[in-house]
Amino acid sequence: MGRKRATGEKEKKRKKVTVKLLERKHAGKITEAYRIMDDLIDKHHNHLADAKIAIAWRFGWNQDADGRLRLGQAKKGSDLDRELHHFDFVILLNHEAWNKGGLKQEQKLALVDHELCHCEVSMDVDGEPKVDEEGRTVYRVRKHDIEEFLDVVNRHGCYTNELAKLAQSGINDSDRPLLPKDDGDDPEEGAEAAADTLETDILRLSNEGKSRRAIAEEMGVTQHQVRKVLADA
């Protein structure tokens, strides 16, 4: 028999669990994240049709020093992982952001799409999919097409072909323009008005005694943006 805890004895603090696999089905229905992933694979990621991809909740992700919050991460299964549970990839999703952070449906869709873009088939020198000794497809984690600092783009514009393509993609997408505007409105005036409103709200919250981190979370911006506004004030 285990030793009874003495009256008034404090319960030992247990280690927090930071990762938990998401069940594919709940109450007989496919869960939201898996439903989104299945639809995206069917429409845009046919190369992953035979891949075994698990989804897991990641608890406790916090903003980094630059005020950025990680929303997801794609991890490739090792040979040991594939032997133990047969998963080729595991997609980690920020539990708090997904369930409590107010992510809209289109944002959830974009997040899962982003992580699936990291999941790629490895090709041999002949352009054919690689396979291992067990006859399994070999996968890899694909890097981002674009990696740049916003400050550099603001100072120098789209100075690479990759940045230019990204900007053109946004310009061509009339359904989701880079900057929201009403018909007949001047986009420059709209952008300036939005920036003025953002600065006003940041200054107001700062005057109320809120920290940079609290302001960033409430306004949905980075701490770097908050620091810049306060420094320029």
CATH class category name of the largest domain: Alpha Beta
Distance linking N and C termini = 66 Å
Query: What does the overall shape look like?
Result: globular
Query: What string, H for helix and E for strand, traces the elements in order?
Result: EEEHEEHEHHEEHHHHH
Number of strands: 8
Number of domains: 3
The third-level CATH topology of the largest domain is Zincin-like
Strand content: 5-15%
Structural class estimated from helices and strands = alpha+beta
Mean pLDDT across residues: 82
Level of helix content?
40-55%
So, CATH architecture of the largest domain? 2-Layer Sandwich
- Report on the biggest sheet: 4 strands, mixed
Number of helices: 9
Nearest-angstrom radius of gyration? 23 Å
Query: Numbering strands along the chain, what is their spatial order in the largest sheet?
Result: 1-4-6-5
Uncertain residue segments: 178-194
Describe the structure.
With 233 residues, the chain is of the alpha+beta class. The chain has three domains: 19-141, Zincin-like, CATH 3.30.2010; 149-178, no CATH class; 183-233. Helices cover 42% and strands 13% of the residues. The protein is built from nine helices and eight strands. It has helices at 32-44, 79-85, 95-99, 105-118, 150-156, 161-172, 187-207, 212-219, 223-232, and strands spanning 19-21, 25-26, 29-30, 53-58, 72-76, 89-94, 119-121, 139-141. Strand 2 and strand 3 form a beta hairpin. Helix 1 (32-44) crosses helix 4 (105-118), helix 7 (187-207) crosses helix 8 and helix 8 (212-219) crosses helix 9 (223-232). It is globular. The chain starts with 18 loop residues before the first strand and ends with a helix.
